[in-house]
Automatic annotation (TrEMBL):
Pfam families: Ald_Xan_dh_C, MoCoBD_1, MoCoBD_2. GO terms for molecular function: iron ion binding; oxidoreductase activity. SMART domains: Ald_Xan_dh_C. InterPro entries: Ald_Oxase/Xan_DH_a/b (IPR000674), Ald_Oxase/Xan_DH_a/b_sf (IPR036856), Ald_Oxase/xanthine_DH-like (IPR016208), AldOxase/xan_DH_MoCoBD1 (IPR008274), AldOxase/xan_DH_MoCoBD2 (IPR046867), AldOxase/xan_DH_Mopterin-bd_sf (IPR037165). This is Oxidoreductase. Residues 39-145 form the Aldehyde oxidase/xanthine dehydrogenase a/b hammerhead domain. Residues 1-28 are annotated as: Disordered.
Amino acid sequence: MSNEAGIATTAADPAPETEPAPHGLGAALPHADARAKTEGTFPYAADLWAEGLLWAAVLRSPHAHARIVSIDTTHAREMPGVRAVITHEDVPGTPRHGRGTPDRPVFASEVVRHHGEPIAAVAADHPDTARMAAAAVIVEYEVLDPVTDPEQAFEAEPLHPDGNLIRHIPLRHGDPDAVGEVVVEGLYRIGRQDPAPIGAEAGLAVPRPDGGVELYLASTDPHTDRNTAAACYGLSPDRVKIVVTGVPGATADREDQGFQLPLGLLALKTGCPVKLTATREESFLGHAHRHPTLLRYRHHADAEGTLVKVEAQILLDAGAYADTSAEALAAAVSFACGPYVVPNAFIEGWAVRTNNPPSGHVRGEGAMQVCAAYEAQMDKLAKKLGLDPAELRLRNALATGDVLPIGQTVTCPAPVAELLRAVQDFPLPALPKDTPEEEWLLPGGPEGAGEPGAVRRGVGYGLGMVHMLGAEGADEVSTATVKVHDGVATVLCAAVETGQGFTTLARQIVQETLGVEEVHVAPVDTDQPPAGAGCRGRHTWVSGGAVERAAKMVRAQLLQPLAHKFGMSTELLQITDGKITSYDGVLSTTVGEALDGKELWATAQCRPHPTEPLDAAGQGDAFVGLAFCAIRAVVDVDIELGSVRVVELAVAQDVGRILNPAQLAARIEAGVTQGVGIALTENLRAPRGLVRHPDLTGYALPTALDAPDIRIVELVEERDVVAPFGAKSVSAVPVVTTPAAIASAVRAATGRPVNRLPIRPQAAVVTTQ
């Protein structure tokens, strides 16, 4: 970035011309809510208030596995200020819920299956009273031995009526007897990452005069949450409304439904508004985490390094309930070989229930775990063959037209080799100086590093891939309405702004299509048609596509009278900077003049092409689109202390089309930083199923001091022809790729295998004889 020097002016100097504000696709518009968030005026769910408000608290299990002998709410009900106490007996409708599989009880009734599972909820006139009343509920437990090792889940007694096995995918592709001249094996473990949202869960429930209820939540999928709540409350969906409040960031399914459901039950029971704000501990215990994973791999290659066969076993620990584990397993098995051409692949994947904390959708689920393993295998293979790790990857890189191990042909742009060459050719950072003034550059931070002579630099590579939108037959559809009146456009779409920039993108689409500068995006609630969950880049693709189609329909309404008047088709008219002109210059007017006080509006849907479930052999066209990333990591490792400093991460990514340069760069940098946490610090430990240190002190998130220099060295704009605008999702694939690249660099620095994430200090220590 360049800094412009200030220029002094006098009164006689002409005033500088004001540059027109950037708008439309390709412009670096700031987030629509950036100013409000910066000034502290953005309305988050925790800021909600209502007249006659009651406060809620939830009693959660202190055990990972126990039989409930009895629940006594007498003392809690008798406390002054307590208005209601509810348990499983007070759920009038469906007693189970779940994001993917509805197998989780609203309140535990007979058995507790994980630490922190809800058992009762209280509404009172003060938050302290609510918490004390929840603590006064007496629960008698018969503590049971928890099943915390996912490998033991196959032989253990069923932890759930549906059994311990959630899904098994056996992938069979090619010749099972194929053997390579060179074989490498590895066993890998991935820890449990928490999404750690910047704000803990909060919400407000308000009863309605018709016996229904309105929920004000930071939901990322309001229509699914409404349908779940209605079923739980025994109400029809039209009597439950969800209004989306400010979402304080989301890198996963933002809301724990087990948090939402008691809120509405209490409001219906008391007839009063009820607010619930989770503590950070409750947030850690309640929402889903990234699946801890055990992976066994065997790679076969010929003497030149060409992959012949990949064999793998992948075991996902789903925790106590299924959630979205079936979908995560499909991604893990499908991408188990990575963005490489593998003619023969035999993968076994399982997702099982345990008494560990619940697992579910976290950005890049399934794909991140296998990326760490297959890239470690590629490093082992390169070392055994005496090849440069980057060269080995280039020899096997996937390209458009190749076939994935699931049998699906890659039809989207897949510039994997180009991405890898870009980061490989990017200049390496300078070495740190051995002076006291530069000690902060060494691993461990200020005054925390060992001797400079113990520091080794390593360079490693990672290639990653993710799928976009839902998979295996998921019906991805979104609806949007665009209205224009008095020169102002309004977009109505139930796509939730989670920080991915959808509201800004919607403004840009309408500005470019209609030439209207002022565009507002209406708040989201379930009175609007559904738009689906805010994950896997789906709102850029599906909801952005719906907005574009609706805007083009309004454009046709706007231009048709003019085209008819001048005897030409609407295709011969263009809108630029708020002006409508014809190809021959005969017609020139403004959008405002063409509107002439009329209100125009249109509603449209966007639905991508269908996919299909994986069959019994793990084969099928399961994915709508794919995105790829290459990262080169440079690390400094203190081989005596095992401390690691990530010096630089060079990123190259295929993005399809750049819609907003500033937002795109921010999303990539955020994804990379989240990947640094997975690689080095983040691991929610739960010995015997009990979450240890469920707070932001015990759970080590990377801070600004941990963030390395992130160099976005190339963004490949090869448009995906089946995607609206040709754009691809950008935030998940750097999360997937970064941990693998960092682990590769630590291997290069230390010569150690590094087969576990996060990387523990002892794994980076080199013992000298």
